[in-house]
Amino acid sequence: xxxxxxxxxxxxxxxxxxxxxxxxxxxxxxxxxxxxxxxxxxxxxxxxxxxxxxxxxxxxxxxxxxxxxxxxxxxxxxxxxxxxxxxxxxxxxxxxxxxxxxxxxxxxxxxxxxxxxxxxxxxxxxxxxxxxxxxxxxxxxxxxxxxxxxxxxxxxxxxxxxxxxxxxxxxxxxxxxxxxxxxxxxxxxxxxxxxxxxxxxxxxxxxxxxxxxxxxxxxxxxxxxxxxxxxxxxxxxxxxxxxxxxxxxxxxxxxxxxxxxxxxxxxxxxxxxxxxxxxxxxxxxxxxxxxxxxxxxxxxxxxxxxxxxxxxxxxxxxxxxxxxxxxxxxxxxxxxxxxxxxxxxxxxxxxxxxxxxxxxxxxxxxxxxxxxxxxxxxxxxxxxxxxxxxxxxxxxxxxxxxxxxxxxxxxxxxxxxxxxxxxxxxxxxxxxxxxxxxxxxxxxxxxxxxxxxxxxxxxxxxxxxxxxxxxxxxxxxxxxxxxxxxxxxxxxxxxxxxxxxxxxxxxxxxxxxxxxxxxxxxxxxxxxxxxxxxxxxxxxxxxxxxxxxxxxxxxxxxxxxxxxxxxxxxxxxxxxxxxxxxxxxxxxxxxxxxxxxxxxxxxxxxxxxxxxxxxxxxxxxxxxxxxxxxxxxxxxxxx
Length: 639
Description:
Elements: H1 2-24, H2 26-37, E1 38-43, E2 50-51, E3 57-69, H3 77-88, H4 92-99, E4 106-108, H5 117-126, E5 131-140, H6 148-151, H7 163-167, H8 169-173, E6 177-182, E7 196-198, E8 205-208, H9 212-229, E9 233-239, E10 246-252, H10 265-269, H11 272-275, H12 285-294, E11 303-306, E12 309-312, E13 315-318, E14 326-329, H13 330-336, H14 339-349, H15 351-360, H16 387-394, H17 403-414, E15 418-420, E16 425-429, E17 436-439, E18 444-447, H18 451-467, E19 481-491, E20 494-508, E21 515-522, H19 531-534, H20 536-549, E22 571-572, H21 581-591, E23 594-600, E24 605-610, E25 616-617, E26 622-628
Parallel strand pairs: 2-8, 23-26
Antiparallel strand pairs: 1-6, 2-3, 3-4, 3-5, 6-7, 8-16, 9-10, 9-21, 11-14, 12-13, 15-18, 16-17, 19-20, 20-21, 22-25, 24-26
Helix pairs in contact: 1-2, 3-4, 3-5, 9-20, 12-14, 12-15, 12-18, 13-18, 14-16
Pfam families: PASTA, PBP_dimer, Transpeptidase
InterPro entries: Beta-lactam/transpept (IPR050515), Beta-lactam/transpept-like (IPR012338), PASTA_dom (IPR005543), PBP_dimer (IPR005311), PBP_dimer_sf (IPR036138), PCN-bd_Tpept (IPR001460), SpoVD_pbp (IPR011927)
Organism: Tumebacillus amylolyticus
């Protein structure tokens, strides 16, 4: 009886277990079995395209069909090879060799993995067992080389490797689809089982904040700098200070996205504009000035005497100008980029307060820009800062920062005192409908200084461009503010003789800044190495072209440029519309200008002119004439 009871319990347990497996575990076991039987042929999604803010395509995917073979499913290999060879323009022997490989899947194509649409259709029409046609994509960059460090590139497996291609890879890549079939352990297709096609989900389309036209202006200026000064490197950024949008970012050396393998790895792996750490020099003085004004440690009218040095901790730290600037105001200190004056500001602030503002302006930390490889700079530990460290930090020596940090710090001054987070993604669009599915909003990090302090700093920087060391960035019709920088490069704990990074950062228009532009030039080969001589005119050109392109109206307000004895002063174009060509010729010669011989229209009267009357241009400039047989009204306003 005991044995019988034990057997009954055992059989009951077996019956319960069998019922559990049959009724409860059956779906899961079936799924596991199907996974063991299932073979998948991947179908790539179409990678999302990348455009600039105006819709110009910068990167897109071109898809191409690919013929895939499952060798185990091909029973008649010789017959299959005979049918495929003429379609694929391959020899029968080569095709038979490929489809006879001991592999789960083989790509079949005469020159790689992709075939034409026509050949793909012919292969499908053959309806051969074990032969499948799928899609693969290839990345194209129509403006190959433009904004290369921003875009980066994608590899052959649809994987973003650098730039925004890498940063936003998961959204650009999409989700792959598949062609599924059931096969036994030998790879042979199981009978009475249907194939399954799961369509891929294409990647989202990305609209960037950059403007291709402004990017072109910047890259053109970099090319000119390289041709003229043969530097080791160049970094340039243009930003919208109110939103943190990056309108342009470029470096030298650069590369072409479509052929990145032809360049050294460090060229495409290092985005100097966000990665490189170096002493900023005098551009950093903007931070010291803003902090001193905000804390009311100085006013711009305070007097200061510069003997050519400033004594700190028993050590004389010299001004860049031998003999010093003598008696001046704090406004003059900024215009002249006088190091002793800034050391005084730093001393009045104290190390805790100065480094607190350095931190608020975003130095010593990543800005959070949506690009891989950003650096964060190197600052002193405030607890270990000596009086000499405080003095040198005040004028931008002894600390290391990145170009993007400087741009965002000055953007905070330009927009009224708020530090913004920089960003390159403007919006995301659905790949099928092209409708906006997400818009990237401007993100404020913190308020750094008051609007009044920001206004004072902007106006002071305008004075630097009109009357001080930044004159070469001056633009007629636009109020430009900016600061020069010339910093010696430190290597292995010591400054390297003759190796400088010159820079300039500017904004315009000063009363309502639309743009902040920055350029740094590493080791330019020139007899006179100063940021005001080499970098300032470059930023002036970038701002001038960009403001005209954006249709920012000109203004006659602001400070007039102060000319030195050797400076070439511009002349004002007189009003000649309404005159005869002969009278206009006399008027132009009297103004030191020339009449352009190419004219528009016919007739003996001038009805319009370019540049317009009232425009200031260099002496010897030409004026284009628009002619007509009818005389224009004499009372024509200057534009």
